[in-house]
UniProtKB/TrEMBL annotation, chains A, B:
It is found in: Cell projection, Ruffle membrane; Cytoplasm; Mitochondrion inner membrane; Mitochondrion intermembrane space. Residues 141-211 form the Thioesterase domain. This is Acyl-coenzyme A thioesterase THEM4. The lineage of its organism: Eukaryota, Metazoa, Chordata, Craniata, Vertebrata. It catalyses: (5Z,8Z,11Z,14Z)-eicosatetraenoyl-CoA + H2O = (5Z,8Z,11Z,14Z)-eicosatetraenoate + CoA + H(+); decanoyl-CoA + H2O = decanoate + CoA + H(+); (9Z)-octadecenoyl-CoA + H2O = (9Z)-octadecenoate + CoA + H(+); hexadecanoyl-CoA + H2O = hexadecanoate + CoA + H(+). Keywords: Apoptosis, Cell membrane, Cell projection, Cytoplasm, Fatty acid metabolism, Hydrolase, Lipid metabolism, Membrane, Mitochondrion, Mitochondrion inner membrane, Transit peptide. Belongs to the THEM4/THEM5 thioesterase family. It is an enzyme of class 3 (hydrolase). GO terms for molecular function: long-chain fatty acyl-CoA hydrolase activity. SUPFAM superfamilies: Thioesterase/thiol ester dehydrase-isomerase (SSF54637). It holds the Pfam family 4HBT. GO terms for biological process: fatty acid metabolic process; negative regulation of phosphatidylinositol 3-kinase/protein kinase B signal transduction; regulation of mitochondrial membrane permeability involved in apoptotic process. It is a peripheral membrane protein. Its EC number is 3.1.2.2.
């Protein structure tokens, strides 16, 4: 929830997609190089690498764009978000926030969420290529329903982001088939309707060959009013 | 999803609630002591400890029971689950599975999901006391919507478990207010209706003082038929 907002703010300080990392100043005396996690690493399976290459090809004509992904928000993003949407009394300490990490990137490489997202502006579609590691287990051998919900929340959130800063109001998820651990699946989301500040986004998770529908979901996002406080 | 099933199978090998850990044989030559994560650790805030103590008191007359919680399933649980519900062709290797971890316990102590669950059999209620760490961040300062969905999935799943081995068919989540990182909230779930193999469970997340409703949700679980394969 609210991820799209954070992501949008985060992208203010983000590098172009082709740049492997970004340098942000956390404190006046400290520089931190932020790794872009939306790029292949040794834990990626052959399937994930092949899909990644296919989508990178689609990016060449500009119809699709790969989204960079970071573990931490730059402090200016944190400050801007807190200033715009959070009451001063409930602002988290900057020092503490510097230790915070984006949930979907907080697990060790290969053991948690391995994914990369691509956006098609013309079609208002966000596609996420996802490989669920061994630390995402629900029941033996399968990805946890909460981890699946996380991927749906992230992918639909990024799809909403293209329309403006928004927050998740509802996620409705149908679990149809369990997703085997360490397999690669495709999360497809699309803006289906807008009504004023409401954004309706559909999402499904399929096998690479599109023969298996694992999950289908709908998400409702509400565009944020900068004058409206969250806390 | 399917967590309740795994949990039930896991509890086959689980120790009584008061025992701090369990010893399981992973391989013929290897013994592993499994820590019970449903007990206080140094990362627990004063609020979480106070609530824990209150519920432990409620356990004294037997109306409530604390649930133990582990990071890994014993291999017999894995084998039993795979044998009962998974086609032989798609069984994950035992050696690989020994490295798998329960998603909600896979993050470092204090940085991820800190929680303990209590069950009231008479009321068919499962309560989860939850403190979301700094690595569960969605937007700056708040718990990720996927992490919230995970807690709802786990709590309703454990509530369903009391009725039998079941899998999540649907989660419908309304995000009403963002949950601040490092705060303690109470996840309340209750079996509201059963229709044949369908279990309808309601769930909400509130502040300790019950003045703030952060999230409300419904979950549908389907009791599993041992003859029906998942893959």
């Amino acid at each position: 929830m609210l991820r799209s907002c954070a992501t949008r703010l985060r992208t203010l300080g983000a590098p172009p997609a082709k740049q492997p990392g970004a340098v942000w100043r956390l404190f006046s005396s400290e520089k931190v190089i932020h790794k872009d996690y939306g790029l292949p690493n040794p834990s990626w399976s052959k399937d994930l690498r092949l899909l990644f290459d296919q989508f990178m090809k689609k990016c060449e004509d500009g119809s699709w764009k790969r989204l960079p992904s970071y573990r931490q928000n730059p402090v200016q993003t944190f400050k801007e978000f807190q200033t715009r949407f959070v009451d001063p009394g409930s602002v988290t300490k900057e020092e503490q926030m510097s230790k915070a990490q984006q949930f979907s990137r907080s697990l060790e490489e290969g053991l948690g969420f391995e994914y990369v997202m691509f956006y098609n502006k013309g079609e208002k579609r966000m596609v996420c290529l996802f490989q669920g590691g061994l630390h995402l287990q629900g029941v033996p051998g399968f990805v946890h329903g909460g981890a699946i919900a996380t991927m749906i929340d992230i992918t639909t959130g990024m799809c909403a982001l293209a329309e403006g800063v928004a927050m998740t109001a509802n996620l409705n998820i149908d679990y149809k088939k369990p997703i085997p651990l360490c397999s690669v699946v495709v999360v497809n989301s699309k803006l289906s309707k807008t009504e004023g500040r409401k954004l309706f986004i559909s999402c499904d998770i399929q096998s690479i060959d599109e023969k298996t529908l694992y999950t289908s979901a709908t998400a409702l996002f509400i565009k944020l009013d900068p004058d409206k406080r969250l806390t």
